[in-house]
């Protein structure tokens, strides 16, 4: 027992963390099962998360399903507000009927902003009401440095979080991993609209999924201000890790950073 405790007492940087040269401004590596932090770099700096925001939107959706407020088959009517969202979308039309399950697919696979707004309006009656719910849930989870302004992560004044807080909400979402991970690991999927139109949903995280075999999620983000962001998860044997990087200056750097974190975690922990 004494030997075991001595092993646990070593700082992660003793085992090679100092060799990592991450490009991201902020990063954290967490054991999903325990929440233990295995590595961190400026983990509490408030930064824009871009579409990584959608982890909270999805968490509230999954909790609404668990609480019986929604089912996967619940039909949602797309509004003009949802239709006119910019950025990545699944090309929903005003008045189009779409199931909660397909909205979740659009959100997880294609990072669809219109799907986020449609879910937010259906769950809370308005985007503003849903954002209030997002912030309340963040407070409950102890996300002390987070403030959401919208459910999708498009640029907005005061819309900030931290790598540590993202790891917290990612870990909470992974309570639903049996439902979520098959979608977050889908490379592409064809969605058929109510009127017969077809939209190809291509995973924004496909670079990680196709490069790192153990990875199966979770959510990317990018805007000009936020730069390249990612909350990734991977599992080897019985160890599942959550790696978060924020404000990586390049897409390739984001991928390299997350893989470096995973490699470090799987090489040094069990």
Folded structure, characterized:
With 270 residues, this protein is an alpha+beta fold. Helix content is 39%, strand content 21%. It contains ten helices and nine strands. The protein has helices spanning 2-9, 54-66, 80-83, 100-110, 113-124, 127-140, 163-173, 177-184, 206-211, 251-268, and strands at 26-31, 37-41, 75-77, 97-99, 188-192, 198-202, 215-223, 227-236, 239-248. The strands form three sheets. Strands 2-1-9-8-7 form a five-stranded antiparallel sheet, sandwiched between helices. Helix 2 packs parallel to helix 7 and helix 4 (100-110) runs antiparallel to helix 5 (113-124). It is globular.
Quick description:
With 270 residues, this protein is an alpha+beta fold. The chain has ten helices and nine strands. The protein has helices spanning 2-9, 54-66, 80-83, 100-110, 113-124, 127-140, 163-173, 177-184, 206-211, 251-268; strands at 26-31, 37-41, 75-77, 97-99, 188-192, 198-202, 215-223, 227-236, 239-248.
Specify Rg, calculated over alpha carbons. 18 Å
Sequence stretches where pLDDT stays below 50 over 5 or more residues: 5-14
Shape: globular
Major beta-sheet overview: 5 strands, antiparallel
Instruction: Estimate the helix proportion, in percent.
Output: 25-40%
Helix-strand string: HEEHEHEHHHHHEEHEEEH
Category by helix and strand content: alpha+beta
Number of strands: 9
> Which strand order does the major sheet show?
2-1-9-8-7
Overall mean pLDDT: 93
Q: Could you give the distance between the termini?
A: 17 Å
Q: Give the strand content.
A: 15-25%
Specify the number of helices.
Answer: 10
